[in-house]
Design a protein that fits this description.
Aspartate Aminotransferase, domain 2; alpha/beta; 3-stranded antiparallel β-sheet; 2 domains; globular; Aspartate Aminotransferase, domain 1; 483 residues
């Protein structure tokens, strides 16, 4: 497929913008480009076909089964989009006077209220642009808390070996040293090892619950208490909140700060370059350190943006975050209501257990008794016996029109496939997918050599992934060369 820059001819185009109705200002020579700007000159037909061709090369939740473990790729209801594109929300400007955006401020106040209730937190900020950005923000709250108490020696963040990779990365970026905590053979945090690791230099502990193996930490109250007794704080990675929404709350488990992925749990757009949203909630002990501005309600019932709040860690993003993503999330919450949110989580857990139950006699599943919203398959033995890898199985799925699950994660499971069907899939879809999974596994056992040729029917076959990693083409050059 050609790049848009490789299409068209000089002088070709389509009129999309009206003529300028303001005076044309000529820049001085020192501000002008030294060479012409390379912009594609294409007709409207070419432009439309280009983006249609791009669309056909993508795969999303609107195209088919998309069980990306720990990412909750659920369907986004169209009512969310309808509300978000209302001109009263879509056409505002972040520098408008407060009295002209009272309704928009109320949206964020309502979203904060409901997310606080769902998570058991006291306050929220919507500034962080994504989950990892939220992690960084939450860790800065923990840092500010300890520094305010004079505990500068608390520079260690404890992280389980099954954690999302963003957890240790965010901790390092926030200036902490990461201490790895091993898991038990049953897939849970090793409580005794955690007890040994926690001490007077512990700033906090980061945990996803349910964890990345799809297991709910049975000793969660003991775990959070160990950290509190050591003087640290507990950080909840909200990536897997979709399994417990309306059923259990991180705040009741002993967590002090949490980030949420609105694009996962609350059904807003996911991927594609954004926009995202990773709001951070916290207990009252951390509220003073939240990024500014914060929204407060005046005595007259109007809303006010409070800037330069004493103790705040400052801005982490321009203005107030990705506002329209918050509008979508609030729409989702109000549409489902209290019981609907709970039903969504119950259905997600039911779908995952249904799928795991029907696959456990075919695929090796390290923890087959029960799971929450996702489960993990290990193809270690298949690789040893037949030479077929998790990547081979995943590539074969593409030819059946379904997206592969997360591969090679969590790292503590060899040749892992992590499957999360979500609540928005029907039983009929799950039954069809289960049969596809079984068919692929049978072919892997009977004809392992054929598995290395998948996918055969997709637009792009199997690329040379080693060459792509070692010799990536990162930019396009107009002289015909690329590097």
């Amino acid at each position: 497929m050609k790049l848009i820059f490789e299409k068209g001819m000089e002088g070709r185009g389509c009129t999309l913008l009206p003529p300028s109705d303001v005076p044309l200002i000529q820049l001085g020579e020192k501000h002008k480009r030294k060479q012409e700007l390379h912009l594609p000159e294409v007709s409207e037909t070419e432009l439309s076909r280009h983006y249609t061709e791009l669309m056909k090369r993508t795969f999303g939740v609107n195209d088919g089964f998309y069980p990306l473990g720990s990412c909750t790729m659920k369907y986004n209801p169209k009512i969310n989009e309808e509300i978000a594109k209302m001109p009263e929300f879509a056409d505002i400007h972040p520098l408008q006077p407060e009295h002209t955006i009272q309704g928009c401020l109320e949206v964020m106040v309502l979203a904060e209220k409901y997310l606080s209730e769902i998570t058991g937190m006291d306050r929220f900020t919507f500034q962080p642009a994504a989950g990892a950005h939220g992690e960084y923000t939450g860790l800065q709250l923990i840092r500010a808390y300890h520094e305010a108490k004079g505990n500068v020696k608390r520079d260690k963040i404890l992280v389980p070996d099954s954690a999302h990779g963003t957890n240790p990365a965010s901790a390092v970026m926030a200036g902490f040293t990461v201490i790895n905590v091993p898991s038990t053979k049953d897939g849970y945090v090793d409580v005794e090892e955690l007890r040994k690791a926690a001490g007077d230099d512990t700033a906090g502990f980061m945990l996803t619950n349910p964890n990345t193996l799809g297991l709910f930490e049975e000793n969660i109250l003991e775990i959070t208490e160990i950290i509190h007794q050591a003087g640290g704080l507990n950080y909840y990675d909200g990536a897997n909140l979709n399994a417990i929404m309306g059923i259990a709350r991180p705040g009741d488990m002993g967590f002090d700060v949490v980030h949420l992925n609105l694009h996962k749990t609350f059904s807003t757009p996911h991927g594609g370059g954004g926009p995202g949203s990773g709001p951070v909630g916290c207990k009252e002990i951390l509220a003073d350190y939240l990024p500014s501005p914060c929204i407060i309600e005046n005595d007259d019932g109007n809303y006010h943006l409070e800037f330069n709040k004493e103790g705040s860690i400052g801005r982490v993003k321009a203005f107030y975050g990705n506002f329209l993503v918050v509008v979508r999330a609030l729409t989702y919450i109000l549409t489902l209501g209290k019981e609907g949110l709970k039903h969504a989580s119950e259905s997600a857990v039911l779908n995952a257990n249904y799928m795991m139950h029907h696959l456990k006699d075919t695929y090796p599943i390290p923890f087959p008794d029960k799971c929450m919203h996702e489960f993990v398959i290990s193809l270690e033995e298949l690789k040893k016996e037949k030479g077929v890898t998790a990547l081979d199985i995943a590539k074969a799925m593409l030819d059946h029109g379904i997206h592969p699950p997360t591969m090679y994660f969590p790292l503590i499971i060899p040749e892992a496939l992590m499957v999360e069907p979500t609540e928005t899939e029907t039983k009929e879809t799950l039954d069809e997918v289960i049969e596809i999974y079984k068919k692929i596994y049978k072919e892997a056992v009977d004809h392992p050599e054929a598995m290395r040729d998948y996918p055969r029917n997709t637009i792009i076959g199997r690329p040379d992934e080693v060459a792509a990693a070692r010799k990536p083409v990162l930019r396009y050059r107009y002289d015909g060369a690329s590097n």
